[in-house]
């Protein structure tokens, strides 16, 4: 599903974040050490190869809400933006830390003059953030950022499962109508 808001394409699609050749950057749901892990981080590091972790090491550790940018190596993108989401129930305030992830990722994309970026559902896997709450934070953060954007033309949310896809699609419909 796609919509255009303030000249920026907002897309929601089911897929694997490590297989998005048309995007300049993909966002990694990282750990503090920026090391290969499970879920998104496992897929991203697995496809990028060991050079990615070598570039990451001196940039770590990062704190919840922070983001850093690297090259993408074996991935079909120019860059990876690594972001540490909050662990739900531990890192507080969760909503503000999650919002910072998305805001800081967009900021890095803009600073690097990227035209497209793909996000997974940061914190909604191993870190346990309830998906219904996370999607609210994502769009409440995204919409006020759109008027500041100069370079990005496409922002894509890459959802792994059907439940996530439906949540994002209904939110996007709500926004497109409202
Ligand atoms: N593409 C898109 N989405 C995915 C993919 C994929 N290949 N794989 C999983 N998801 P998670 P977190 C979904 O656990 O909660 C790692 O081990 C998944 O269904 O990757 O921020 C790191 O090293 C879920 O909805 O990220 C950290 O230690 C969402 O992406 C920790 O997990 C995020 O799941 C980070 O946990």
UniProtKB/TrEMBL annotation:
Domain Macro per the UniProt entry, residue ranges: 1-176
InterPro entries: Macro_dom, Macro_dom-like
Residue ranges that the Swiss-Prot or TrEMBL entry lists as coiled coil: none
The name this protein goes by in its record: Macro domain-containing protein
């Amino acid at each position: 599903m796609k919509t255009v808001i303030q000249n920026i394409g907002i897309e929601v699609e089911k897929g694997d974040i490590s297989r998005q050749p048309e995007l300049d950057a993909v966002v990694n749901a990282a750990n503090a050490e920026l090391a290969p892990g499970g879920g998104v981080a496992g897929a991203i590091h697995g496809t990028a190869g060991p050079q990615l972790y070598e570039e990451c090491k001196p940039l770590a550790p990062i704190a919840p809400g922070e983001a850093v940018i690297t090259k993408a190596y074996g991935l079909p993108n120019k860059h990876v933006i690594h972001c540490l989401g909050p662990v739900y129930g531990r890192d507080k305030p969760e909503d503000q830390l999650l919002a910072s992830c998305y805001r800081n990722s967009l900021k890095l994309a803009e600073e690097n003059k990227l035209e497209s970026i793909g996000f997974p559902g940061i914190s909604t896997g191993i870190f346990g953030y309830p998906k219904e709450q996370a999607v609210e934070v994502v769009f409440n953060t995204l919409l006020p950022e759109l008027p500041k954007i100069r370079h990005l033309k496409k922002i894509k949310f890459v959802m792994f499962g059907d439940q996530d896809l439906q949540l994002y699609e209904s939110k996007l419909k709500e926004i497109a109508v409202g």
